[in-house]
Amino acid sequence: MDTAPLQMAVAKGFFKEEGLDVKLQTLAGGAEAIPKLKAGALDVSFGNYVSYFGAQAKGVLDLKIVSDGFQSAPKTHVIMVPKDSDIQTPADLKDKVIAVNTRRNIASMLVRIAAKAHGVELDEDKNFVEFPFPEMEGVLKNKRVDAAQVVEPFGTQISQSIGARIIWDTAQGPTADWPVAGYAATSEFVKDNPNTVAAFQRALSKGQALAADRAQVVATIPTYTQIPAEVAAGLNIGTFPTTLNATRLQRVADAMREYGLLDAPLNVTDLIVSGSK
């Protein structure tokens, strides 16, 4: 769902209006996107901010955030347990095994923030195990894990299929309206192609604005995913910011520093393309 505005911008011709010929490429995740950006195989990539900021801090690549992408909303990112589990709140996650799609990234960090708000400190190595999102239903059903951090559409699907319960919606409290992902390019590409980047920003912003209409997003999701229209209609959908805001994104970098995912403070303002807000 996160890239629905991009799909809409392509379908509506917003990029063509800006003189851009956009070719979309689907990747397994941010881990695959970062080396492709570095190698020049991608000009711009969608990805989560934790991966981007971590790569920047480690010197893996020098990047710029060119557009915001997706922000959490109620029930888009949740912690779920089997329906007969004794776990009721994040306070009960102490010494439990929690499934996330990737450790030391946004999923485990959101769970750790929720647990800390409930007086519990979780450890990346002791408390978390990795499973792809499509496998979350199976590991919860078979009780291979005690809990799982799940995103849409999997949260809705797992709830309906096995009756798994949400014990905490991470789009509340200290992680309400959480900046999840955006679009990045290398500093070199931005420097060499300022007009292209500006055109990309304008076109995508139109798609992001169009996505404020839930009906438009629901109608778009089945066109580029395997999610049926009837399922898309019932999904919990986040929000799609139309501008970049350093203060908002700094929340992510500060949390990464607090939870040991950054060794030093990171000033997000330095990563935002000049002229963006």
- At the first level of CATH, the class of the largest domain is Alpha Beta
Counting H and I runs of at least 4 residues, what is the number of helices? 13
How would you state the average pLDDT, rounded? 95
Reported CATH architecture of the largest domain? 3-Layer(aba) Sandwich
Distance from first to last alpha carbon = 24 Å
Estimate the strand proportion.
Answer: 15-25%
- What's the SSE pattern? HHHEHEEEHHEHEHEEHHHHH
Helical coverage, percent range: 40-55%
What's the story with the biggest beta sheet? 5 strands, mixed
Whole-angstrom Rg:
19 Å
Question: Could you tell me the number of beta strands?
Answer: 8
* Tally of distinct domains: 2
Textual characterization of the structure:
- This is NitT/TauT family transport system substrate-binding protein.
- Residues 3-213 form the SsuA/THI5-like domain.
- The structure is a single chain.
- This protein is α/β, with parallel strands linked by helices.
- The chain folds into two domains: 4-72 and 177-271, Periplasmic binding protein-like II (D-Maltodextrin-Binding Protein, domain 2, 3-Layer(aba) Sandwich); 77-175, 3-Layer(aba) Sandwich (D-Maltodextrin-Binding Protein, domain 2).
- The chain is built from 13 helices and eight strands.
- The strands form two sheets. Strands 5-4-6-3-7 form a five-stranded mixed β-sheet, with helices on both faces. Strands 1-8-2 form a three-stranded antiparallel β-sheet, with helices on both faces.
- The longest helix has 17 residues, at 194-210.
- The two termini are 24 Å apart.
